[in-house]
Design goal:
mainly alpha, Ferritin, Ferritin-like_diiron, iron
Length: about 180
């Protein structure tokens, strides 16, 4: 028997005593309230990105806009999936996902954009992706081993945000003289 493991009787007793805490056990090492707040900020970021990509999809015009607009639509769908993951995790941790449209842009790390030109849209979307990448990288480091489930969720989201940035950079390089 190893010294660092809690004995089974103690684990069983704690599980019964703290049943109302759901998945959050004594082994959870992060600041729960702060993790929920950080996840809500990320949720706001993802929702603003959905709205920005949707707007860009519907307003993209000009030469080559079809392929770029299709990418905007795909990114919007993937950003919505990120928002859904975050909302589910917030709920799982006992929090309440904040979808309040009145405060959405204030809580978001990325900004909404209504650029009229395709090149500007791509640039602004790339900026937003870079913000998400930097932010989520910091969150992953901050979570470390204190909340491995949330960390892995952010790692998966980060991987897709990096793909988005790469896609947008490719378009930007083709579009710029």
């Amino acid at each position: 028997m190893t010294d660092f493991l809690t004995d089974v009787k103690t684990l069983r007793a704690r599980a019964r005593e703290q049943i109302e805490r759901g998945p959050v056990t004594d082994a959870y090492g992060a600041d729960l309230a702060r993790v929920i707040d950080v996840c809500n900020e990320a949720l706001a970021t993802e929702l603003v990105c959905v709205l920005r990509y949707k707007r860009h999809f519907f307003t993209a015009q000009g030469l080559g806009s079809g392929q770029v607009a299709a990418e905007f639509a795909q990114h919007a769908t993937e950003e919505q999936a990120h928002a859904d993951l975050l909302a589910a995790r917030i709920t799982q941790l006992g929090g309440s996902p904040d979808f309040d449209p009145d405060t959405l842009t204030m809580r978001s790390h990325a900004e909404y954009d209504a650029s009229p030109g395709l090149l500007e849209m791509v640039r602004e979307d790339l900026v937003a992706e870079r913000i998400a990448i930097a932010s989520y990288t910091e969150i992953i480091g901050w979570l470390g081993e204190k909340d491995p489930t949330s960390r892995r969720m952010f790692e998966g989201i980060l991987e897709q945000e990096e793909e988005h940035a790469d896609d947008l950079l490719t378009f930007l390089q083709k579009m710029e003289p």
